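Structure (tokenized):
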């Protein structure tokens, strides 16, 4: 097997979803530009070219408001599933493993193996940080994209204000506005619904061969078992 073939096989999940993401982003840019230009033409204004739309706050806020909700979902899910359980769900740990677990179970410190990451074999701050690094990075991505959404949304909102011959608002006013929280909460509620649906539906439904599902023949009460 060639190196290229091995790479495509070993990283196919990331490659497939990364490619799908880029295609969806291109489609969103095309549809968003067409929609915005329809509004601009209707208002008697000059439509935007491709580069102009990609550099606009309208495009940026549409992208970042979705990113922040996705990273919020993963952040909450990663930290929440340390302690929260769902009987019968492969999305949950088994019912006797709530919490951060022992060093032996986590293969850290003296229980690390030769294949364990270097920071898993350390002590102190490095181990504390590394043992929570996935959730922390997701939290940083969420906060960063949410901050970006607030800035780009503020800019887009003020552009609409000026087109309507109304006074622009300060960033602090925008963050407290109905527009900002409508954009934010409509994404949060959909992501939280998706997680809750996945947790409970995977108790009773199956997808053969998927690690997100239990084995087809597993009992409904089997918890933390992946197919």
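Design, position by position:
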């Amino acid at each position: 097997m060639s190196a290229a073939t091995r790479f495509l096989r070993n990283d196919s999940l990331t490659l497939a979803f990364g490619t799908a993401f880029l295609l969806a982003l291109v489609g969103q840019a095309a549809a968003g530009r067409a929609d915005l230009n329809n509004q601009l033409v209707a208002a008697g204004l000059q439509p935007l070219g491709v580069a102009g739309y990609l550099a606009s706050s309208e495009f940026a806020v549409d992208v970042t408001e979705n990113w922040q909700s996705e990273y919020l979902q993963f952040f909450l899910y990663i930290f929440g599933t340390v302690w929260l359980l769902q009987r019968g769900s492969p999305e949950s740990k088994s019912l006797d493993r709530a919490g951060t677990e022992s060093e032996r179970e986590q293969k850290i410190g003296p229980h690390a193996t030769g294949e364990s990451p270097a920071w898993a074999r350390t002590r102190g701050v490095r181990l504390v940080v590394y043992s929570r690094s996935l959730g922390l990075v997701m939290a940083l991505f969420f906060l960063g994209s949410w901050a970006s959404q607030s800035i780009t949304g503020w800019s887009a909102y003020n552009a609409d204000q000026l087109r309507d011959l109304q006074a622009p608002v300060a960033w602090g006013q925008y963050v407290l506005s109905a527009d900002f929280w409508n954009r934010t909460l409509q994404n949060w509620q959909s992501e939280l619904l998706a997680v809750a649906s996945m947790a409970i539906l995977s108790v009773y439904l199956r997808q053969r061969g998927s690690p997100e599902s239990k084995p087809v023949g597993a009992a409904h009460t089997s918890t933390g078992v992946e197919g």
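Reviewer-requested clarification: The two ends are 27 Å apart (CA to CA). The chain has a mean pLDDT of 92.
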